[in-house]
């Protein structure tokens, strides 16, 4: 299933990410920095509106917005709003178009100028480039004596960008095996921690300066809670990639003080958070961070099941199953042998966990269909999640069939047939309607899950390449095949 982490911004940040409603579109060419800035905001608002129905039109508006932010900064290099919005827009486009695996850039129409805008100042940046652009904006404000204009949302966004970059760096086993102080990974971790600490410092100062405004206080509490959640996620991302006690001791030296600081803040928040869902997310994120540093299989499984108050929580179950996958992967990516009995045990636990999750989501889908909810993408998101879980369960069953243990050998045919059945279920669900208010992203995501399931099924059923063209599409199956080739259970189909 898609294991990309979701990063929720505080409400105040989201509001700043949206242009003010009712902004009129100005066809005349501006003559001032403020004029270019206002037009950039208007273009971005148009891009946001079109994003749910036309990705090509949306990206063209985002491109115009990006150009105008640059023009505003050319006329006024210390325009703090443009300095904030420029890299923030680049990150939003990265999240919506580059990182999102269901978007095929080649399928966009009339976007040649946009897609070619990938130079050092272009709209399309990799995550490292976006981090550098955020850093450049902060540096300009500091050097011009305007550091006081840097809001806590600015620091939060930089921390989130670094978290994303750290995730990518940690996915490369070579970076972990060769890790040392002063390398790209540890420098990025250090900078990410600094930005989170700046965020906490600024928002706590704001909270202490407010008197008697309960609504603002609640929002600030939610913002700082989100900061803790994202901090724990970043920490877990790093520790999930560490496969030895020596590596964990090294990273404790790098991150130990920061972890203690986040724990202190989180502990003060628990009694005052009014939003139960947010409180549970904080608890689950902290639990995931604790589990990420455990190398012993039994201890790992016991720690996940130790919080009985969260065991029925769907979010916790999904996080736990994903954490189990990371536990297996951290050893296999560096060719270390996880004890066979441990691997069999973890895969069995994952299978049971996802089976119970499947039952929950099926009921939720039925309830949504029965209620005829008009909420955009509510039904679609559940269908997409169900497809992802069917695919993950299929991968697990196939992986279980290949474990060299008596139980697996005697059940190999059954497990492999289970895998095929689960993939067929994913195909069936991917073709369900996402509702009349389903966005274009919902439709594309269902199509993406459909291709993932179909490619796997083609391999398991031994279909030939000319059949892949018909079933998946000649322009799509190479990317799917490349992704599947990295999954351990399918490597025998490529030999």
Describe this structure in words.
The chain has 21 helices and no strands. It has helices at 11-17, 33-50, 55-75, 80-98, 112-115, 127-143, 152-170, 173-177, 184-209, 214-239, 245-269, 276-292, 297-304, 314-332, 340-371, 378-401, 406-410, 412-430, 440-460, 465-471, 477-484. Helix 2 (33-50) runs antiparallel to helix 3, helix 6 (127-143) runs antiparallel to helix 7 and helix 10 (214-239) runs antiparallel to helix 11 (245-269). The protein is globular and about 75 Å long.
What can be said about this structure in brief?
This protein has 495 residues and is mainly alpha-helical. 70% of the residues lie in helices and 0% in strands.
Would you list the SSEs in sequence order as H and E?
Answer: HHHHHHHHHHHHHHHHHHHHH
Number of domains: 3
Tell me about the largest β-sheet. none
Provide the helix percentage: over 70%
Q: Quick one: how many beta strands?
A: 0
Low-confidence blocks of residues: 1-26
- Give the count of helical stretches: 21
Structural class: mainly alpha
Can you give the mean pLDDT? 92
Q: Ends: how far apart?
A: 24 Å
Task: Please state roughly what percent of the residues sit in beta strands, choosing from under 5%, 5-15%, 15-25%, 25-35%, 35-45% or over 45%.
Answer: under 5%
Record the SSE blueprint.
Blueprint: H1 11-17, H2 33-50, H3 55-75, H4 80-98, H5 112-115, H6 127-143, H7 152-170, H8 173-177, H9 184-209, H10 214-239, H11 245-269, H12 276-292, H13 297-304, H14 314-332, H15 340-371, H16 378-401, H17 406-410, H18 412-430, H19 440-460, H20 465-471, H21 477-484
Helix pairs in contact: 2-3, 3-4, 4-6, 6-7, 7-9, 7-10, 9-10, 10-11, 10-12, 12-14, 14-15, 15-16, 16-18, 16-19, 18-19, 19-21
